User: Fold this.
Amino acid sequence: MEKRILILGAGLEQTLAINEAKSLGLYVIACDQNPNACGLKEADVGIVCDINDTGHLVEIGRRYNVDGVFCHAVEIPQVVSDIAAQLKLPGLSREVAVRATDKLKRIRWLRENGIPVANFMPVYSADEIEEKANKLGFPLVIKPVDNAGARGVRVVNGKDELKEAYGEAIQFSKSKVILIEELLSGPQISTESVIYQDQLITFAFADRNYELLEDFSPYFIEDGINYPSSLPEETQKAVLALVDRTIRILEIDFGAAKGDVIIHNGVPKIIEMAARTSGGWFGAGSIPIATGVNMLKPLLQMAVGDKPDLEVLRPTKKLFCAQRYLIPRESGEVISVSGVEEVASMPGVEMFTSFLPQVGDRIVRSTNHAQRYAQVICTGATIEEAIGRCKNAIAQIKIQLKPLTE
Ligand SMILES: Nc1ncnc2c1ncn2[C@@H]1O[C@H](COP(=O)(O)OP(=O)(O)O)[C@@H](O)[C@H]1O
Ligand SMILES: [Mg+2]
Assistant:
């Protein structure tokens, strides 16, 4: 009989997982709180519900007698592990899911276990931030412990910026716990790995493009990736070894792990290692296009208790590949959006996804990754060509704004 899988999230990115599951012959029950989420229609059953509501999701899982639960590109590994545990399905333990998600628990665990990370301090209330910031030293990075997509993350250069930055970070935190960290600088890398039994395969490794770092300062706006990495072979090896060690130390022993690494003064340090798949069309976007790997297939197979086909994590090609985003630089009310139709057929465009605002919408200059409006992935005969093609494609799209009146 065909196996059944519960997929949490049915937005644009999650639809990749829904379609992959269907092509594996799985019966898909997809959930999303947004009734217009495109994947709800792609699934065999689409249910509108909160994907953080473990109780309700367990009930749905029971009702449909599912064989597995999976989530792609959403920071809810604890929910996935809770559902798996309650329904006795394959999954990661809750303890590990929490340790790899809560930024304070994670960075503490990593430091205690000898993994190089930034110096840090937790901040539990506005009263203690100044004293702690003075101890840590400026410039520093402030971030909520429980969010993703760079929401609420920024640089704080001095005492006078603390109050505002704390206010922003706390807005993005349910727990109201904030981390302050030493500001690291240097090339940044995204990695992604699949872990099954004693096998750990890091199939994705790319340079993150931070050329807009200064422009968007004090916020951290990444504008896509370049593949393959331009870092020296030795550095790449050191990063891979660190990623491997970090995953093992966190005890992520099932599913996906996505890493953010920075090379600070020549030393690779871990910014993040999350027990989930990456968002932003990385592990299920640019990496498959550049290398031919398919991470979703083995991850979905594992989720329903089948032996995963890990062969598909082996690269079958190595193309020059870049990704770039449409990132709003200004705030205003949208009066027109044009140029979108042309993008998909431009030279070298392998994938184009847009989630553009509508006329009348108010948009803001980006302060986090959730405010990007389209992404394009291009290949080329050289990395420069791939990047140039991305830039041309993004430049096609014009969003005209008028100033906000209030
Ligand atoms: N200590 C740090 N030093 C320098 N840059 C940082 C530091 N912490 C975070 N960043 C930057 O901010 C981005 C978002 O922070 P991160 O901790 O990865 O949170 P999120 O879960 O929102 O992605 C990182 O990808 C990195 O570019
Ligand atoms: Mg991150």
In short: The longest strand covers residues 254-264. The chain has four domains: 4-89, 119-182, 185-318, 322-402.
